[in-house]
Write a structure and sequence with these properties.
Structural class: alpha/beta
CATH superfamily of the largest domain: NAD(P)-binding Rossmann-like Domain
CATH class of the largest domain: Alpha Beta
CATH architecture of the largest domain: 3-Layer(aba) Sandwich
CATH topology of the largest domain: Rossmann fold
Largest sheet: 7 strands, parallel
Order of helices and strands: EHEHEHEHEHHEHEEHEHEHEHEH
Oligomer: single chain
Number of domains: 2
Shape: elongated
Number of strands: 12
Length: about 300
Amino acid sequence: MKTTLLVPIELPPDHMARLTEHYDVIHVAEGADWLARTPDAGLQAEGLLTRGSIGLSASQLVRLPRLRIVCCLGAGFENVDLEAMRKRSVVVTSGSGANRACVADHAMGLVLAAMRGIARFDRETRQGLWQANVGMPGQVSGKTLGILGLGSIGMELAHRAAAFSMPILYCNRQPRIDCDWTWVPDARTLASRSDILVCLLPGGEQTRHLVNEQVLDALGPQGCFVNVSRGSVVETDALVRALQEGRIGCAGLDVYEDEPAVDSRLVELSNVVLTPHIAGRSAEARLQLLVTAIDSFRTFFGGGRLLNLAQA
């Protein structure tokens, strides 16, 4: 008899087929109220495949009496009540690292697009403008890169930046012993010493609005800010003002506080490049995330040792 998995997220048909090879899958439509709309869906589920942005609350957990493991596609746990899971002895794991190359590619792309004005110059070239009428782009090579959150994605990004001869600084709670890049103790100091600041922090209350007016002012009028992590990390009003007033030079954003809504003030700005939370999306990355999730379920139900565990 197969183990039952509850899946409140949309997956491609071929991915769903892979899951059903190994498990009895109960699929419910994606959305914040997924369990309220299907109250009996989770009565038999021992595993939950979800995303950190959808998560699982303590009140929802009560309605999943047999649940033993939550696996989040991607790196985030931000809307999973980890304390409630711990009290119920429910294991929480993620696909952290499975799409790290894809996210690092996109982050570097946003750095290049924002600093070089690629999207704006594309529009202006189509309008018939030429060199003297479009302004001077910035240079990326040789600029100092500050990485806010040097995890597996940050390591990938740093390796890409090294090819651009960029000095690399980073801010974590503690210095890493497996790299030679320069550790900085806080976000404001990191911004003050960087030309380009890339945010790779997890979401949640601990990091909410960590990038604020003080951090952006420290980055300065020539600075570039890129966020491919979670929109909640950035104080949107402060970022908008900094871009409007020229207190930072440019930005590249893949995530937003109220997504899928994007603040209309950001849409109107020419010094920001916007993408729709796709940094971690590619055919290769999507498949690897699923493979990682299946491996996690197999390991757990087989009595093995899991990696990428959340800590309450």
